[in-house]
Amino acid sequence: MTVDAAKLVRMAEQITANMAYTDDVELVAARVADHLNRFWDPRMRQAMAEAANGDADQLSPALQAAVRQLHGVGGGGVP
Amino acid sequence: MPDMNLYYRVGAERDLGTPAANGNPANGGADAAPTVNVEIDGRHIGVPEGTSVMRAAALAGASVPKLCATEDLDAFGSCRLCLVAIEGRKGYPASCTTLVEEGMVVHTQTPRLAELRRNVMELYISDHPLDCLTCAANGDCELQDMAGAVGLRTVRYGYDGAHHLDKPKDESALYFSFDPAKCIVCSRCVRACEEQQGTYALTISGRGFDSEVIASQNDAFIDSECVSCGACVKACPTATLIEKSVIEHGQPESAVITTCAYCGVGCSFRAETQGGQLVRMVPNRDGHANHGHACVKGRFAFGYATHRDRITTPLVRDSIDDEWRAVGWDEAIRTAAERLQGIQARHGRKSIGGVTSSRCTNEEVYVVQKFIRAAAGNNNVDTCARVCHSPTGYGLKTTLGESAGTQNFDSVLQSDVIVVIGANPTEAHPVFASAMKRRLRQGAGLIVVDPRAIDLVQSPHVRADHHLQLKPGTNVAVINALAHVVIEEGLEDEAYIRARCDMEAYRIWRAFISEARNSPEATEAATGVPAGQVRAAARLYAEAGNGAIYYGLGVTEHSQGSTMVMGIANLAMATGNLGRPGVGVNPLRGQNNVQGACDMGSFPHELTGYRHLSDQATRKLFEAEWRVALDPEPGYRIPNMFDAAIDGEFKGLYVQGEDFAQSDPDTQHIYAALSAMECVIVQDLFLNETAKFAHVFLPGCSFLEKDGTFTNAERRISPVRKVIAPLSGMDEWEITCRLATAMGYEMRYSHPSEIMDEIARLTPTFRGVSYAKLAELGSIQWPCRDEASAGTPLMHVDQFVRGKGYFAPTPYVPTDERANARYPLLLTTGRVLSQYNVGAQTRRTGAVAYHREDKLEIHPADAQLRGIVDGSWVGLKSRAGETVLRAQVTERVQPGVLYTTFHHPESGANVITTDNSDWATNCPEYKVTAVQAYPVSKPSEWQEMFRRFTAAQQQLSEQALGEAQPSFAPAKLQRDRQVAQA
Ligand code: SF4
Ligand code: SF4
Ligand code: SF4
Ligand code: FES
User: Fold this and answer.
1) What is the distance in angstroms between the Cα of B626 and the nearest Cα belonging to chain A?
2) Number of CB pairs < 8 Å for A and B?
């Protein structure tokens, strides 16, 4: 993982923490994914997803689920 | 294009003598008051109840002589010049302090009145120097006018007796002089300082003949409490208090109405000129944001516009180690276009981007984002609002449905309790602060939420009921605790919530906020605010009637900035404090056009009017107007651009009037990013810090050289009009258009009014906004939802823009930036009244005398522990970097907290701020940095490097600037030519 990808993952975890007002992981994941799809440049989503997938066990469960719902990222979601 | 003669027309400023009935236009009561019919000198007129006879007479066209009265101040009745005769009444009452009554018959001119008035004038003149011909106020002196009006021809008393003519002048104030020999003791200055400004720096000391005006405890102005707002100068009817610029240049001969380019209050001014030279800026009485008041910056600090550091010729160079070369506009535009296209050819369409400026006009901002999206073909466009109010956009859009403040400024005059969170209005938004203080003096409650004891906590006749002095970084915990109390104690407005809000979201939020972890008792340890105080403040806000919240960068510039904005909106919705006068949620915007820059589609994910790029209908609208295909995916934000630059995939940047290298956090990271780019184009007034890393410099225009509009913090679109011609010979919007055209995408307008017409066509909240309408109405508050709309002072009146208000759960997530053993103190930042942000403008005016360096405020306990004494050098170290500042030991800050300003680049305040940012918007966390402090004897390594680098860059520009010395010969604006061309 490059330094910048690590920073992107950190930012994504920060978003997840701020969405996590409930224990419903799926709900949180959906909101995180929606946020990333709306506000992040696709290149950042891609780089973050790659880094995250390479290091999946380090991620919060909600972010793991969110990564699968990102647009334009290999391995899932709406293109 | 509007009729330019009409657009520039300026009416004479009329003074009706006393304020409108009910004191202030905001009260709206004036319209509601019953009409009273009177007869004045044979003319019949109906005026609102509570109007003075003087005002009614002026409205009827009969002007009564006056000296101590002016429309800006409450009537005082001391000069006895305004006497009138009223049928059926004995004696001669003063018309300024007498109110109209139904059927009153008034005579303003009778032989007896003329004699009485002449006697009064004779007394005044007998103690006044008769040097009218050489007096600086000659032609603009009410005493002179009144002597003429009452027909004074002889003065029976000589100067032999006691008089005041030998009193020395006080020239100590920077921008105005005080000549007590000319004072007639009308007390207008004293009342202006109290009523308009709220500073109470002046008093009349002594009685009768001995009375005189003194500043503070008979101090020189510069040493007094005076904050140089200039209200007293405007109020003074004589030459006693007068602008030094008028003494120097003489009386102005023409005027243009324009808008201040400093802060988000957006004060309207008459820019008064003589022979093409700006002589003075006088606050416009018809200005809807400021009602004739101003602060030191807008009123006096305009010297930067003609400062010798201004660059007026385009410059280019190949690398930042090369000397700058002065070139013509054609070559500069060609070079910039070729380099950007070259980068795109080598590194792809998305390898370049642009940044719009909150200091520029709406029209200039609009063309830059259009340039990036349409000519460069990507969405890598952002604005400097990223680093200040982007969380406001996100938070208010999510909860209420519109990314803007809910009220007009005047609304504060109907508030019963005012909550100020993370804002310092007396320093940063002074004219609004004056309005707020007026309301506080009338008895409104005040709650201040701030780590620091800002002036509002205790100042003349103002005292906060509660100061919640929280630890930096715990805003969300405090706002949650306040909301928790509202719900727990049943203070919510249930009917309001049921009628207006999304009940499912409310149910979820209510459950969340009621959790024990959000109670004041549970959060006390983290916030440092006693639970009892939080409970008392919550009750005051919820129960006082009209509760209004005003907030600033102390809310947004945190890792939870967006959460905090939503927390504020939740609290206001829960207590029913949205949708009527006196309430609301109001961001105080830093720069003049932050609101406008955001409105204009500067963010990478949205088009004008906050419409997301993924919305196909909106995209189609723009694609049809612009004749290009738009990318539906968001581009990079500013911090992402820098990260990508360091990564090597982002290579070219067009920067409109923004100085990252000083204003953005983690300076060393920014330096690295800027150095990594192949082409940095800076468009600015000065070779600023960022320009040291630039390859092309395009000289911009000061606001005095522009036609356009600014939008202030209350969504008010106000006209900016040319006072002088562009020193660089090119309008800023035109630079961008020519750059786009050179890159193969044609952008042509003949005047900025056409750009506004395009914006209005494409933006549903700007329907019908045009320069003709602005000229007619003076200013317009968006939204304008149809062609006929005259604007919307209050938002969310019948329902929220979103439809149903949305309660967003706001969990408190502490920042990573926490005090620890290595960095045990928390640094927070702010600004001072006399300086403006990075200071690029204000440091180039006389105002620099007020604030020569940035200081580090430190609590005595922390200072003593470290052997730091007042005035000594302090080293400051964070995980990002190290700098050195001079210490100011003070109890304004709490133990464990440090505070500094960031107006001077060599201070390096941002060398120590980190890359932490708001989770939703990446707005940097300026307000919290964990640091260590220690005594040192020399500047930091970074500061040494900064000095060397600055000196080297200076050398590289010397030759080019020597060749192209800017000329500040007054360039008289050829309006006729413009009109003819139109
Ligand atoms: S200084 Fe001017 S405004 Fe003040 S009392 Fe004297 S004449 Fe009046
Ligand atoms: S300049 Fe403003 S603050 Fe200073 S004395 Fe005059 S009114 Fe008061
Ligand atoms: S309050 Fe703001 S807008 Fe008004 S004069 Fe001062 S700086 Fe300018
Ligand atoms: S103007 Fe009325 S008493 Fe002075």
Assistant:
1) 23
2) 58
